[in-house]
Amino acid sequence: MREAITISPTKDNLLKYKRKLKLVERAYDLLREKYEALLMKLHIITAEIATLRTEMEKCLSEAYIEYIKTESELGREMINVFSDTIPKEVEIQSMATEYMGVDYVNLEVEKLPDTSYGFFGISSLLWVTAERFRDTFHLIIQLAEIESLAFRIMNNLQSIQLNLNALDKVYRVRFRNIIKFIEESLESYELENIYTIKKLKSKLEEKKLRKRGVHN
Questions:
Q1: Contact, 126 vs 73, CB < 8 A?
Q2: What DSSP designation does 146 have?
Q3: Can you spell out the DSSP letters for 85-134?
């Protein structure tokens, strides 16, 4: 159903809504460019996530294999004893970052527990196992950061899509209809004025001819 237009069909309003339409067109083009750029970034990130996840799963698998070897040599109780001797604090720095208007958190591992077990004089398997899990932890943090960015980009893309639809299906259509209405109204008014002027001229000519006939 076409929207009822109550705008006064004047030249000022015509210029006003043409300017508004121009702004809408510009906003639409800019948002469309941002949408396409973010969509391209999302494709790149998706590939990075797949690579990181594969690497993390491989690293985690290797870490568990080393753990099984260590457990078979030292026993679980001995491993628990050694694990109680090291600090458990993990320090991760988070910094607010922005990409094309999308806010996310940049994560960086600053401190992990020391994996030195040399003073125990035990098998190096425990050290290797700990190193494998440390490597896996770094990959998990990287994956968490990039997945967070991907999730926020997807939310932003949904928001941009809603705005694009509003600009295209609501404002663009509305302003075009208003401009068309005003132009048609002004054209009709001008035609009516032309008709009225011609009619007045015709009456004046008739009046002049009658006056001439009376004088003759």
A1: no
A2: H
A3: TS----EEEEEEEEETTEEEEEEEEEE------GGGT--THHHHHHHHHH
If you search the block for the tokens 């005003």, which residue do you land on?
Answer: 182
**Residues whose CB falls within 8 Å of the CB of residue 21, separated by 6 or more in sequence, listed in order:** 172, 175, 176, 179
CATH number of the structural domain spanning residue 18: 1.10.287.3240
Summarize pLDDT for 68-103 with one digit per residue, the tens. 888 888 788 877 777 777 666 777 777 888 888 888
In this predicted model, what pLDDT tens digit does every residue of 117-151 receive, in sequence order?
544 455 677 778 878 888 888 888 889 889 999 99
pTM of the model: 0.70
| Domain carrying residue 91 | 11-164
Query: What residues form DSSP beta bridges with 102?
Result: 99
